[in-house]
Each structure stands twice: as structure tokens, then as C-alpha cells.
Amino acid sequence: METLKQGEIKVVQDSQTSVTTVSASQTTATAVRGLETKNVHAWFGKHHVLSDVSLQFPERTVTGLIGPSGCGKSTFIRLLNRMHEFIPSAAMAGQVLQDGQDIYAPDVDAAAIRLKIGMVFQKPNPFPAMNIRENVLSGIKLAHLQVADHDAIVESCLTRAGLWKEVKDRLTATGGSLSGGQQQRLCIARSLAVEPSVLLMDEPCSALDPGSTLRIEETIKELAEKIAVVIVTHNMQQAARVSDFCAFFLTDGGPGYLVEADATKKLFTNPSDTRTADYVQGKFG
Amino acid sequence: MSVVPSVEATPEPRELSVIYNRADRIFRRIVTSGALTSLILLGLIGTFLFVRSAQIFNDRGLRFITGSNWTAGSGDGVILDDFSIGPMLTGTILVSVIALIIAMPLAIGGALYIEFYAASRLRKLLSTLLDLAAAIPSLIFGLWGVVLFTSFGERWSILLNSRFGWVPFIKVQAEVFGRSPFVAGCVLASLITPIITSVSREVFSRTPRDLIDTCYALGSTRWGAIRTVVLPFGRSGVIGGAMLGLGRALGETVAVYLLLNIVFRYNFRILESEGGNIASLIALKFGEATEYELKALVAAGFVLFLLTLVVNMFAATIVEKSTRRK
Amino acid sequence: MSTVVVEPQSQPLAPQPTTPWKPTRKTQFAGAFSIAVVAIAAFAIVLLTGLAGIDGFGLTFLVVFLGATFVRTKRLNPKVRKDAMVGVAICAAAVLAFFPWMSIFVSVVVKGAKGLQPNFFIENMQLTTPDDELNMGGAAHAIVGSIMMVAIAAVITLPLGILSGVYLTEIRGRLTFLVRFVVQSMSGVPSIVAGLFIYTTFVNYTNSFSGLAGSLALAVLMLPTVARTAEEVMKLVPDDLRSASYALGARQWRTSLMVILPTVRSGLTTAGILGIARVIGETAPLLLTSLSNNSYVFNPMGGPIGSLPTYVFGLLQIGTENSINRAWTGSLVLMLLVLVLFLTARYFGGKDNR
């Protein structure tokens, strides 16, 4: 059983049963497999937008980040794969640990981090100048990775993304010939090709119809059998359907902060904080 | 009382007509006359050029374009009028192509630098300066070329000739460097680079941000993102800019006039000190031209106009295709 | 065991924003130091091999820098090495692309400042030869001539161009395609051809070169630019605005004059200013229509007239030291005029997007 730092909350899911045990401990943590943030803050210039977030994202789990808009969920998720720094006035504090290593350490190769921590964006955006097959392989080409069998990778990634059956006869068609939901699954396949251990998803279904949304949620559950998934969503029902754990963010007009993080079932049926209860019951947001 | 819905076929659309009141009619008349005047004036120019040239083309046919003499007749039948623009036409194209070949990589590199490599304050400053540079009159480029650039041009020509003099279009017959299509091409390249850079930079800045972010999210480097997303996206815009620059180079008068010796001989050796283009031919010959020679000059101008027209139309269709696609 | 809710803890020391991805002072210093080393190495090579001038140094610097980059990235991922080398190449291309016009800006100011004395703006060249010292003579006649010709061209072109723009966007009558096509085609007329057209018609007919002929040639060049920019600016007005006006029962002329045109007022001003900036430096058409002159001419039909471009062009052809200096000064004044027009257009162009 992993040990924790004082004051930290840790949710552990026993893989045999579905009982969750929660513990707080006095001793320091040992290296955790998966992603972890410790006291992470974010600024845009002098504007403090995210305050003191400590969360863990263990392997083979789906974590939902919920909360009203403007709470810094998107900013937080971009801190996890070092995309936050592309904004000119961005600044941060705290640690983001991937398998125990701080990804913001001075000699870390950010591009290599992004191979391990992938991201799918809100609006489906396959590369317009490439066909379906080239899109899936684009990450491999961009990273100059040596891969023996391109066809095998294309098939395996598209299958994991739930798209193989629909496009296997038209791999040379352009990405634009697909529907919105199919395009988003293509983007998921593209992210999978470089074999990340974590997949970050920033409201991946908000631009899609309900049918495509459900299919992508199925895909997410299948993906979680091998990797960790972190999904930002405004849709509470989606969070309830798809995630194992949820983290509820809130803002009082100042920086966004973490209110409560717990197993999804518990958060939605018997949350510890009244604000969480109000939010999941739809009283605001 | 229930209403039975009728099962007739959908009715024909009604014819609508608009009646304008007096004020509107006056307004429309004024505006239409304004547009009509522009149409007539500009159309008149095209028609005029065509009609005046028709006689020359009638007399000389294709020889006007292929021949290589420009001799004014002596009027008494001893020496006959013999006007052809051949070397000037090839000279126009030669100098402009040299300019475009030099300008394109520099312009694309410059545009990429401003958009993706420069810090944000430097980017704003360079964009403004670049737009100003595109407005510099070509006369000043000519002045700069003659006074400041010629020594560099000479030195490079000598170097090129000594290393690559065995290449057919680089070797020279007369070892005089300094007023060659190459030097004129370099100065023209400096002239057209700002406008191509400006257009390219604008296209690159409109690349969708999330496509670039996706590249980085896949672990790409900056050049990887540029190569995969920015360049394909901006391709048609850059070509449109190139055509704009080419059009400007084709019609350039003063810079070529000052930097090239106009010689009526077909010359494809870029380091040789002879050449010319149609625009500088007109500037040179108009002063003492006979009436017939003047018609020949108009015909030459018409050919040049057609050339730039084709290039501009090509640019416009490419730009329109790209904006329609997005 | 009970669940504990994490609340934002009041920390004794508030966390400070950091940017761990930016290069540290140490790395920046190392970078600057290595550039200095490369520069010294390049300089040494230039001295040894005898490559001349600033272009020789630039080329050597680039080659040495590329080599150093290649060596430095030896152990890294091939994509990182490619990225670094391409980065150097792009910076080099940018330097080459920007150098000519930066050099022009600097030269025009440095070399033209010498002649920028009061007499330049007051006197003309009637009594001085181009080779005289710079405190004699001036270009007042040229400045006056340029302003006069451009003003006449603007008076002709701006109303016609704006009316064409209004026609194309508001009225959209049967001539629309034709007008647009002709305007588009004519914007590519080479400036010398415009001059030739006026020469063979107007100059021939009136049997003299004149300022008016020059204005007409400039108008031929300005009209397509003004019409196209006017149309583009008016196309930007959202249809909602027109719909709102018509829905209130306004007639077309009221809608155009009182709703649309005021909205695009700054845009149209920009169109006019861009048209003027385009023709103020044109030399070729003036060589065929207004020629040049050494003294003041205030009558547009009073024979050949001086203008800044022909003034500079003539001096350039003479080629002595003093005449070239005058040419630089004339160019400086021309550039200053373009700069003023450019800044004015920027100022007005921004006002529409409030």
C-alpha cells in the first residue's frame, strides 16, 4: 500500500473488489506509477489562475475533472503535458511527477514528455494535408520514431480508437471526409500511435452529437484498460458514466482550486463538501 | 370546424419587383455612373492598347515577338522599320525569374522567422517595418542598387564565374561584370522580397492554432510543426504572394533601366553585361520615336501588359481557391 | 478511517510564479559566449583566406555556426538536430531578406541627412547645377510638383473609386461582373504602360508634356487600387447592419449614406491613402508625361513639371558626388512622405475595429 504525505488525500481502488479505502498518513510518498501533481499553481502574467492542486492519476484509471467554466481545469490539464508554457506570459509553481520524475526539471526534454503524455483537444483536428493513414502515423513521423510495421500500427491504433471497421477500406481518404465523431476518434488513434502512458482529453465530446459521444466514452473505457486517462468535462453525466475518480474544481472569482477529489460513485452520491453536492445536483454551474 | 389540408402541388414562387422612389433612383444613377465611368476609362485603356498594337501585329505577325532587331527606318526607304521585342521579352522574363528564385527562399525564411522564431515585441516591430519596406518606391531601390550594391554584385559575379564558369548560362564572353541580368536580378529580388514576405507572414499567422498545438502535443519540434502544418496550410497564399512579386518584377522600369545595358541580342548568360526588359525599352526609346515606332512601343507595352495580366489572374485564382477551401 | 477533504491550505510562504522552461541565466550566457567564439573564429578564417567584405564574413560566420550546431547536437535525437540546423538556416534567410531594406532605411537617413538643409525646401534648381554644393539650390519645385500632381489624381480617382466600391457592394447591378473584372485586370497595368497610354493620347493631343498628363497617368494607376480597397472595406460591413436599416424602413440611399458609409469611413480613408502612397514614388509614368523641370510650375497645363521622383532620377543619372547626395536627400524626403502616409493609414485603419 502506498504511503502519503501529511494532509494529502489518496484514493485507492482495490482491484479485486470495488471497495474504496481512503487513508491519510504521516509518512512521505514513494514513487507512484502514473502521473501526480504536488501543490501546483499557474499564472498568466501576474494573474493567479490555479491554486495549490495536488492530485494523483494512477495507471489504468479514468479521472474526470469537473467544475464550472473558468476554474482553471483546461489550464491544469495543459500543465500536465507542458503545453501551458506555449502561452507567452505563462508561469507555474509546484511539481508534476511522471513515474516519480519532475517533468519540469531543468534538463528534461519537453518533447519527449509529450510523447508519454498525449492530448486530445476539444475540436477534432485531423491534419488537413494528410489522409487517414498518414494522420495516424503523423506522430511517429514527427518524433522520428523507428517503427518496423506501419500497417500494424495503423490497424492497432484505429482499432483501439474504435474506428478501424469504418475506415479500413478507405485509409487514403482525407480526414475531412469523416464525420465529427469519426474525426475525433482519428485524433485519439493519432495520439495512441506514439504509445503514451497517459492520455489527456480536454472536453473531447463537447463538439459532438450524443451518438458519437457515447462511442467515444466506450473507447475511453477500453483505453483505460492499459493507460491512464484524464478527461476534462462539463457534462456531469458523462463524468459519472466514464470516470473512476473525479476531481471537483471551483473558483470564487480568484484562482481556481480543488474542492474535493474522490471515487466517482462517492462524489456523486455522498460528497463530503456541500459545494460539491450543490454542483452535482445542478444547483449551479 | 376542421380545416382539410389541401393536397395540391407546391405553388410557384411569386415574381417580386422593386420600385425605387425618386431619391433612390437619383442615388442609384449617380453611383452607377461612377462605376460606369471607371469601367469605361479602364476599359478604354485596354481597348486602346489592343487597337494600336493590332496594326503592328498585322504588319509583322509573330516576327514581332521572335525577331531581334529594333531599327527605326530612315524614312526614305533605304533602311526599313524593323521592330521586334524578342530579346527584350526574354530579358524581361530572365531578370524576373532570377529575382523570384533569389527572393522566394529568403521571403519564406523571413516570414517563418517573424512568425515562429522572433520574440513577440520583435515580431510586431518587424511586421510594421516590413509593411513599410513594401512601400519603398522602386526608384530608391534603383539608387541603392547603383550606388551601394553594384560592388557586391560585381564581386559575386566574379566569384561565380571563376568557380562555375563552365556552366553554359554562367560563362561570359566579355569579362566585364557589374551591369548584368544577375546584378539586376539581385536588386529586383531585394525589391520584391518585402511584399512576398509580408503576404507569406500574414498567411502563416492565420494557421489554426490548434493544429500547431496538436503537433507539439505529439512531441514535435518547432520545425516539425512548421513542416507538417504551417507550410502545407500556407502554400497557396505563399504562391499568391510570389505571383504578386513576379508581376511587380515583370513591369519594373527604373531599376532595370539603371542597372542593365539595353542590347538587342538574345542573351541567356546571366553574368554577361547585356540585356534589357520591355519596360526599360519603352522608357529608352519613346523620346525620339517616329509615329510608327511609337505604335511598336505600344504593342510592346501591350505584350507586357498581357504577361502581367496572366500572372495576376493566376495569382487571383490560386488565392481564391485557397480561401474557398478553408 | 474517514475521508478528508483537501482545502486550500494557507501556506506560510506564498508560492512564486516560475518559468522552468525558459533558459536560465547560465544557459543564456553560454549561448552568447559561443556566438562570440564563432564570430572570432569566422573573423580569423576571413583574415586567413582573404574573403572580402561583410558578405564574406557573413558567409563564413554562417558556415562555422552550422558546423558548431551540428557538432553540439551530435548525441541528441535526429529530429532535434534537424530542428536546430533548420533554425540556423531560417535565421540566416531572415537576415538576408531583411538586410536590403534595412540598409536602405539607414542609407537614406545617413546619406540624405547631409543635404537636408533649409534651402532644400525653399529653393529650386533653376540657378544651380546638380554638381554644386549642397547649400545651394533645392527641391522645392519638385515637392510642389509632386503634391500638385498627386492631388489632382486623387481628386479624380477617389470619388470614382469609392462610387465603384459602393456600386459593387450595395447596388450590385448588371454591370457588377464587368466592373469587377476590369478593375481587377487593370490593377496589373505596368506603370510604364500607363504612362505610354497617356503619352500617345493626351500628350499627343495637347502637344505638350504637362502636370495634368502626369496626374492622368497616376490616376490610371490609382483607380484600380482605390476601387478594390473600397470594395473590400465595404464587404466587411456585416449584412446585419443593412438588414437592420432596411427593416426600419430606410431607403437604399439613406442606408448607404447614413449607415454604411460612416461605418467604413476610416477604411475608405485608408483606401485613399494607400492609393496615394502607391503613386507618390512612381517614376516611370512621369518620365513619359510630365518630364521634369528645374523651376516652379504652378499651372497643370504649363508644360513639363518637376516632381520628386524625376528629380531623384535625373540626379542619379548625372552621377557626380554632389548630385548623388542630392538624390539621397530627395529619396529621404520621398521616404518621409511615404512614412507619414503609411502612419496615417495605420491610424485610420485601426479606428473602424473598435
Your description of this structure?
The complex is a heterotrimer of chains A (285), B (326) and C (354). Chain A is an alpha/beta fold and 285 residues long. In chain A, 31% of the residues lie in helices and 26% in strands. Chain A has a 10-stranded mixed beta sheet, sandwiched between helices. A two-stranded antiparallel sheet of chain A has the order 1-2. In chain A, helix 3 (132-142) runs parallel beside helix 6, helix 4 (150-160) crosses helix 6 (180-192) and helix 6 runs parallel beside helix 7. The model of chain A is unreliable at 1-29 (pLDDT under 50). Chain B has one domain (82-325): MetI-like (MetI-like fold). Chain B is 70% helix and 1% strand. Chain B contains 11 helices and 2 strands, in the order H-H-E-E-H-H-H-H-H-H-H-H-H. The longest helix of chain B has 39 residues, at 22-60. The relative contact order of chain B is 0.14. Chain C has 2 domains: 27-113; 140-351, MetI-like fold (Orthogonal Bundle), CATH 1.10.3720. Helices cover 72% and strands 0% of the residues of chain C. Chain C is flat, with a radius of gyration of 29 Å. Chains in contact: A-B, A-C, B-C. At the A-C interface, strand 2, strand 3, strand 4, strand 6 and strand 12 of A face helix 3 of C.
